[in-house]
Amino acid sequence: MNIIHGKLSGVKIVVPDVYEDARGFFMESYHAGKYAEAGIPMAFVQDNHSMSVRRGVLRGLHYQLGPKAQTKLVRVLKGAIYDVVVDIREGSPTFGQWESFELSAANRHQLLVPKGYAHGFCTLEPGTEVLYKVDEFYSPEHDRGIAWNDPDLGIPWPVSEPLLSAKDARHPRLADAELNFS
User: Fold this and answer.
1) Alpha-carbon dihedral sign for residues 133, 120, 5, 91
2) How far apart are CA 69 and CA 131, in angstroms?
3) Is pLDDT of 150 > 90?
4) Which of 35, 62, 63, 142 is the catalytic position?
5) Fewest C-beta atoms under 10 Å: which of 29, 78, 122, 176?
6) Can you tell me the mean pLDDT for 1-14?
7) Among 119, 132, 142, 171, which one carries the catalytic annotation?
8) Nearest to 43 by CA among 181, 142, 136
9) Strands of the 128-134 sheet, one edge to the other
10) Nearest-angstrom CA–CA distance, 147 and 42
11) Does the annotation mark 5 as catalytic?
12) Is 49 marked active-site?
């Protein structure tokens, strides 16, 4: 397993060891001991799985307020996504900055999204399936989001008219979002 550190503090790409032969491949998609040794000592409590029927489905930018904030470990089982994290830790030197990654079934990379970051992704292929682990249970009363198209962020999404949920279409800009991270 190889860890690639993102430009934003705590954001990491996990590149698993993959063993391929004529039958296909094998990989450990998660091993608590190895992840802890690599600086990812999370106790994950819930797995979430989404399937997006078409290209251009955008989910996000999501986060949960503390004390129910979540660290996420994201991977793609089928298809590909343009994945984005935004630093929403007030007082952070990188507050409001974002970073993007391409995760796919082909590259098998995993993205660690720490607490204090908003997260969202846009599907690049139809039938894309995403699986992610979280270290805190979903809490509707702590669930928040930021507008995917906030002009202050200027994220160059791969689509101009994504398919959004009603909830994601109503998220405020970062300047107006409720935050409690420092």
Assistant:
1) negative
2) 18
3) yes
4) 62
5) 176
6) 97
7) 132
8) 136
9) 2-5, 12-15, 110-113, 72-78, 128-134, 46-52
10) 28
11) no
12) no
Share of the chain above pLDDT 70, in %: 100
Nearest alpha carbon to residue 158 among 124, 130, 129, 125:
124
Q: Are 16 and 108 in contact (CB under 8 A)?
A: yes
Question: C-alpha angle with apex 10: 59 to 109, nearest 5 degrees?
Answer: 60
Domain map (residue ranges) of the chain: 2-176
The gap between the terminal CA atoms of the chain, to the nearest Å, is: 31
Global pTM?
0.96
Residue 154: what are its φ and ψ, rounded to 5°?
Answer: 65, 40
**What DSSP line would sit under 90-156, residue for residue?**
TT-TTTT-EEEEEEETTT--EEEE-TTEEEEEEESSTTEEEEEEESS---GGGEEE--TT-TTT---
Distance, in Å, from the CA atom of 8 to the CA atom of 5, rounded to the nearest integer, reads: 8
